């Protein structure tokens, strides 16, 4: 499917256009409708964006939980909180501008910083692309001798003659070569930054940094008494993942009943206190409100039917207590059974080593005698919270077969999505169909603004919303077989990237031009390549409006975040009954899904690169659109987002490699164009560039991929002069002499061409990342006063770190609000009599009879748990 689409795209660019074709494509008056469509898209989206920003400025200080939680909320350690922005708009903008992106790296996560860097990188690529292509290709296209008008005049569609095509070929060599160098440069920088990050004391001392997860270890590895025999003398502890299906259902039922008990008791406390307050307001006295009697009175107590809806009505509090006690007893018996103690049937084992270096060596060297490493996958740096326990405990055969089935299913989904996406792309060219199909003539009766919205704004708006549900579906599928949430997210990134390129770019591009040839295919199928070649540049107008939509209203919506605001205000008021529910909603911070955001913006960059030499104007719109998005994500990562999925920079590495898809597509499309135009010189130039790109890509991957995937086994945090990779592979020189030599070379070059320092210095850093941004230099980025100290663990934390929660979790503590009537105290005693831990600290019934809690001091709340930095 993908190969067919690429072949179509290769052959879908204009040769010579007849007056009839231009008139048909343009609109009612025979002129290009591109400017009208872009204007129709820009005006409403710009107005919407302005409204969003105005609303945001007005309410951002009022709803700090939504717009600035990282400045104060208790789940963010005080030393890692973002400085509070001043209230004045001008002061606020100045403070926001002065905060460096490195603040995200030092106070939140490596992935967050790299995502902002990725956006800056693709903006840089697009901006430099404008500087390279516009001065040359705009004049060449505008004077190309064609009959195109408006914005189409400065695109490839206005070229009439082959001599000018050399300009496009030469510009392609320069710009696409620049993209290749930029991507390679970023990958070198990433390898150094990642090593500096992982070897920083705050990371190197974490338990996860010295623990390796082995899937499909040999049977003997499950025996802890033979741990050192299997994993070496540096192994100090192991945890075996067991299949605990019976225990899973018991724990789920216990937790559900504990939640039901908490809700029922809070409702009882609220109801009785509201009655008491009502009596006080009416009679001025609360006599007769005895907490012991009223709490036991059946008419005030919550009830439910068992089984649900049709069963016998029972007291919810008493029933939940009984069920908790029964399930707790069964859970303990199951945990202490000989089956779990003596015969752990599992297909995975976590092994802790004495230090990070030993863990890295084991990760590289242990293969258990299997001929292929992929048959024994292993992971290092896995956090306990990221483990998908059901998948870890699956057999290798089940995991492999499920992944294979999932891939087939995703391929089918991408193919199926072609139908609606093609329809959306066809809407952008509806005027041509109306000219050829009689029953669509009514479209010409629409006012010009309405027609402009129909062809300019509606298609990208529909596409953007329609595609938004795809990654959620893919994430659900990935979590059915991947062992960890980062692994699932990286799988989503790969799938969603394929979807974005095939559906949002290739299929939409072809279907935008396909409307033009719909009525001619049946007459002469052999003309399909030529017809597509004449009309595909028209689809560039679709992407101009696409970038407008994404860069204005979508970026502004990303900052306003009205969906989360409405959910926080409405859902919290309607559904949060207990202190725990209020606590969870308040402390729950917005996350960011790398598998969703990276492919979207990689695809936008690919579109810009692919059209760079065909419709260079796309680069300018991409620069602006991506720039606005960068500002919106920068605000969110500094003030709103809490990074919850840690890929340790692997998502960024994958995105950089995916960017080269745009280079290949651009080269293939230009090669197809030149071939159709029978221009052997430019075609030969593009053929050489295509082969050179492939060879360059292979060489760069061979050198850099090992550095991006994992730390080299001989790299030690205490030895700053250690080689980056093993003997036999190229090593990166990190000493100061090499840096001085690099500086001198760049300075001599700059003096030779009279480059000023403000250009020379950034150029030097760009061309020599191995010397100016090596691991030794980047280590300083992590040496700051607020850096975390190496964590220390209690014996219990170490014992249970990688143990299945089914084996260690306790009955959830019931959290009740205190009240003046003493109902909470009575319920607390009743719960503790049946061994149900209960607390009323940090919450109370206020003077209105509502639940209030210590939101300003989370550590005083019963739901608070001190986070452990595993």
Automatic annotation (TrEMBL):
Q: Which UniProt keywords apply?
A: Membrane, Transmembrane, Transmembrane helix, Transport
Q: Which GO terms describe its cellular component?
A: plasma membrane
Q: What would be an example GO MF term here?
A: calcium-activated cation channel activity
The record describes its membrane topology as:
Multi-pass membrane protein
Residues forming the CSC1/OSCA1-like N-terminal transmembrane domain are 37-186
Concerning its family, UniProt says: Belongs to the CSC1 (TC 1.A.17) family.
Residues forming the CSC1/OSCA1-like cytosolic domain are 209-391
The residue ranges crossing the membrane are: 35-57, 114-137, 165-184, 408-430, 450-470, 604-631, 652-676, 682-704
Which species is this record about?
Aulographum hederae CBS 113979
Note the PANTHER family from the entry. DOMAIN PROTEIN, PUTATIVE (AFU_ORTHOLOGUE AFUA_5G10920)-RELATED, PROBABLE MEMBRANE PROTEIN DUF221-RELATED
Where in or outside the cell is it found? Membrane
- Compositional bias, Acidic residues, is annotated for 721-739
Q: Which Pfam families match?
A: PHM7_cyt (PF14703), PHM7_ext (PF12621), RSN1_7TM (PF02714), RSN1_TM (PF13967)
Ranges for domain 10TM putative phosphate transporter extracellular tail come to 766-854
Which protein, by its recorded name, is this?
DUF221-domain-containing protein
Q: Where is this region: Disordered?
A: 721-741
Q: What is its main location?
A: membrane
Instruction: Using the record's annotation, list all stretches that form the CSC1/OSCA1-like 7TM region domain.
Output: 403-674
Q: Does the keyword Transmembrane helix apply?
A: yes
């Amino acid at each position: 499917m993908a190969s067919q689409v690429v072949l179509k795209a290769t052959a879908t660019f204009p040769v010579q256009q007849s007056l009839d074709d231009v008139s048909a494509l343009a609109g009612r008056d025979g002129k290009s409708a591109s400017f009208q469509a872009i204007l129709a898209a820009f005006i409403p989206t710009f107005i919407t964006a302005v409204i969003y920003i105005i609303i945001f400025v007005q309410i951002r200080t009022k709803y700090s939980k939504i717009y600035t939680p990282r400045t104060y909320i208790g789940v963010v350690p005080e030393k890692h909180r973002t400085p509070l922005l001043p209230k004045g708009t001008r002061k606020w903008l100045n403070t926001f501008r002065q905060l460096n992106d490195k603040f995200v790296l030092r106070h939140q996560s490596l992935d967050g910083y790299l995502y902002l860097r990725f956006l800056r990188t693709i903006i840089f690529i697009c901006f430099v692309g404008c500087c390279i292509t516009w001065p040359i290709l705009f004049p060449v296209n505008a004077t190309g001798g064609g009959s195109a008008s408006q914005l189409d005049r400065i695109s490839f569609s206005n070229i009439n003659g082959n001599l000018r095509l050399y300009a496009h070929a030469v510009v392609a060599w320069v710009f696409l070569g620049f993209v290749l160098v930029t991507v390679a440069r970023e990958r070198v920088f990433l390898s150094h930054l990642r090593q500096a990050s992982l070897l920083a004391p705050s990371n190197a001392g974490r338990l996860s940094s010295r623990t390796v997860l082995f899937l499909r270890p040999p049977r003997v590895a499950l025996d802890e008494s033979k741990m050192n025999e299997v994993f070496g003398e540096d192994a100090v502890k192991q945890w075996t993942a067991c299949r605990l299906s019976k225990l899973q259902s018991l724990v789920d039922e216990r937790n559900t009943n504990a939640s039901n008990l908490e809700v029922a008791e809070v409702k009882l406390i609220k109801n009785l206190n509201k009655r008491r307050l009502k009596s006080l307001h009416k009679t001025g006295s609360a006599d007769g409100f005895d907490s012991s009697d009223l709490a036991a009175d059946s008419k005030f107590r919550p009830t439910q039917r068992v089984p649900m809806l049709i069963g016998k009505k029972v007291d919810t509090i008493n029933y939940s207590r009984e069920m908790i006690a029964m399930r707790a007893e069964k859970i303990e018996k199951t945990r202490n059974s000989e089956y779990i103690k003596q015969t752990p049937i599992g297909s995975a084992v976590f092994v802790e080593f004495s230090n990070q270096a030993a863990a890295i060596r084991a990760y590289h060297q242990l293969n258990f005698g299997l001929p292929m490493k992929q048959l024994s996958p292993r992971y290092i740096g896995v956090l306990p919270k990221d483990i998908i326990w059901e998948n870890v405990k699956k057999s290798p055969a089940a995991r492999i077969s499920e992944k294979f089935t999932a891939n087939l299913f995703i391929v089918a989904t991408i193919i199926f999505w072609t139908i609606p996406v093609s329809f959306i792309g066809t809407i952008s060219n509806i005027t041509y169909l109306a000219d050829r199909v009689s029953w669509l003539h009514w479209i010409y009766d629409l006012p010009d603004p309405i027609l402009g919205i129909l062809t300019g704004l509606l298609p990208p708006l529909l596409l953007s919303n329609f595609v938004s549900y795809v990654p959620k579906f893919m994430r659900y599928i990935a979590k059915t077989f991947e062992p960890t949430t980062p692994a699932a997210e990286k799988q989503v990134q790969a799938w969603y990237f394929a979807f974005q390129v095939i559906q949002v770019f290739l299929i939409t591009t072809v279907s935008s031009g396909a409307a033009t040839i719909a009525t001619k295919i049946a007459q002469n199928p052999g003309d399909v390549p030529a017809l597509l070649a004449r009309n595909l540049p028209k689809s560039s107008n679709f992407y101009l409006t696409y970038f407008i939509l994404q860069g204005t209203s979508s970026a502004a919506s990303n900052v306003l975040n009205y969906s989360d605001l409405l959910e926080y205000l409405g859902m919290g008021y309607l559904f949060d009954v207990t202190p725990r529910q209020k606590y969870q909603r308040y402390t729950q911070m917005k996350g960011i899904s790398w598998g969703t955001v990276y492919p979207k913006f990689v695809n936008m960059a690919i579109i810009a690169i692919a059209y760079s030499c065909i419709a260079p104007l796309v680069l300018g719109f991409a620069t602006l659109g991506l720039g606005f998005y960068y500002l919106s994500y920068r605000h969110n990562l500094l003030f709103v987002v809490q990074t919850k999925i840690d890929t340790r920079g692997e998502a960024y590495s994958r995105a950089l490699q995916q960017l080269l898809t745009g280079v290949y597509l651009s080269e293939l499309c230009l090669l197809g164009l030149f071939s159709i135009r029978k221009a052997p010189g430019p075609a030969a130039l593009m053929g050489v560039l295509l082969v050179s790109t492939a060879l360059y890509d292979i060489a760069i991957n061979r050198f850099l991929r090992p550095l991006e995937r994992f730390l080299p086994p001989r790299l030690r945090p205490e030895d700053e002069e250690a080689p980056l990779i093993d003997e036999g592979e190229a090593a990166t020189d990190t000493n100061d002499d090499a840096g001085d030599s690099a500086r001198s070379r760049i300075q001599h070059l700059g003096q030779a061409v009279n480059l000023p320092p403000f250009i020379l210095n950034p150029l030097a850093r760009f061309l020599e990342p191995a010397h100016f941004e090596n691991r030794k230099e980047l280590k300083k980025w992590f040496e700051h006063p607020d850096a975390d100290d190496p964590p220390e663990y209690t014996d219990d934390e170490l014992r249970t770190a990688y143990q299945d929660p089914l084996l260690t979790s306790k009955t959830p503590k019931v959290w009740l609000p205190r009240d003046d009537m003493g109902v909470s105290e009575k319920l607390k005693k009743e719960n503790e009599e049946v061994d149900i831990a209960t607390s009323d600290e940090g919450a109370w019934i206020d003077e209105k009879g509502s639940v209030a809690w210590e939101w300003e001091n989370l550590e005083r709340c019963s739901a608070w748990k001190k986070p452990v930095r595993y």
